[in-house]
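Inputs:
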Amino acid sequence: MEIIDGKKISNQIKEEIKYEVQNIISKGDKPPHLAAVLVGEDGASLTYVGSKVSSCKQVGFKSTLVKLPENIKEIDLLSKIAELNDNKEIDGFIVQLPLPKHIDEEKILLAVNPNKDVDGFHPTNFGKMALNMKTFIPATPFGIMELLKRYKIETSGKNTVVIGRSNIVGRPISILMNLKGIPGDSTVTVVHSRTVNLESYTKNADIIISALGIPGFVKKEMVKKGVVIIDVGITRVKDNNSTRGYVIRGDVDFNSVKEKASYITPVPGGVGPMTIAMLLKNTLLSKSLLKNNY
Amino acid sequence: MEIIDGKKISNQIKEEIKYEVQNIISKGDKPPHLAAVLVGEDGASLTYVGSKVSSCKQVGFKSTLVKLPENIKEIDLLSKIAELNDNKEIDGFIVQLPLPKHIDEEKILLAVNPNKDVDGFHPTNFGKMALNMKTFIPATPFGIMELLKRYKIETSGKNTVVIGRSNIVGRPISILMNLKGIPGDSTVTVVHSRTVNLESYTKNADIIISALGIPGFVKKEMVKKGVVIIDVGITRVKDNNSTRGYVIRGDVDFNSVKEKASYITPVPGGVGPMTIAMLLKNTLLSKSLLKNNY
């Protein structure tokens, strides 16, 4: 059994990006510039955006944090987005989700210029991904693909089961794993809340990618020997022994499942750290796309 | 065993559309107007475009056939598309595929205004479909969904196996069947040329949707009793006994498989006739979308 070390790989990727940035600067060009829009004061969102900003610094990107009040009107958020779309100094930007309930997330998402949409959430980018055209891949599935690639895990013809069908993980990773390519070319099944006899699928899987958000859902009885486990779950579970008052738990019952797995991602330290690295990679890409008049 | 009668259902749909058109006209509005761009003289393409145009007449749509020479330059085709995008008299249009080899299909597809893209091939529309937003669904998968709906075939939680992963059938239908909705909510597996032990998937399937293009590929040994069979294959097979010199064959060995199926689409007369009906439906939709300043 080998542990897939997302922390290590994400650091490698950041080093590679840092090198690229130095290259860009040495040619007299400006470093990539990522903006993050944060509405309100949600604790988890603050933490995520904070890490994104500090990761930018780490690799030499410029970053801008746009903090907006919780009660901002939808129309004012839209005009802020229009501003970022037009701002030539900004290569890419993200709008941290979730947004307050009075704002229509779909409308906001559609307002982002697809060429600056480094989260890859705009339908144009999602469609390009599904049609195997060059575009921004959403950071989490992009990170999973990168882990499979760097660990040289065979995916072609393999029985891959994706647990969960969310727009940001389950659906895109199921499409990516099924497309022609390396990694890719898998036989992919998507199981979800409506699936009858879910275990009958996971038991035959060569690769399981779980993005459900239920801690400890995948147990050793549900998997076969030699399975590759990618655990995307990151649920905060109350824990009074922790100084933060909670611990992060994955979808997989790590201690029992690891005995049967050939490869497994831990939580934390698996897919999680990859997400920011791939967001940086998309920002680097957005810079070159804009330059080439994409 | 019940035969799914695509001919009958497509005629029903055309009648419904005809009724809508009369409604539109009675309110003093213009009927929907579909344009079809045909490059070159390919026999099958001529036939397809011909049926589309005559179906428009049948339901009371206006139609325009834009015939362009085989050797047209890419830039001239692009400017023709720009013209159709801007033409307020045209609600929706299609570019008949395949295009001659010297033309970049992807570039052409991206040039079509998504709001007039009644084929649903533009990445923006494909992405909206995958993200479960309101949009144009490509005609063939849209037709399959409509057949399942009108025959009240249960799909929720069912084991659905899609054979083939093309951009115009396999991938979109696999996404649609997996999305929340009726029909939908299936557990979907996509099998393809790289799949190992394909029969192990089809044998457990409650619903098989085959879009492979290999005549007679699905045999009775590969399916379980009670399976629902949707055959999207339409391959021309040479036949000297036919006056046209060929017959149309599906992916499924109909005569043997029908004994085990609960529902089955014939070829011809199953999915085929639905495709044009759903193109008309999209054109009707495009009219209302444009009217609502989509």
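The CA atoms of residues 132 and 236 of chain A lie 34 Å apart. Flag for discussion at group meeting.
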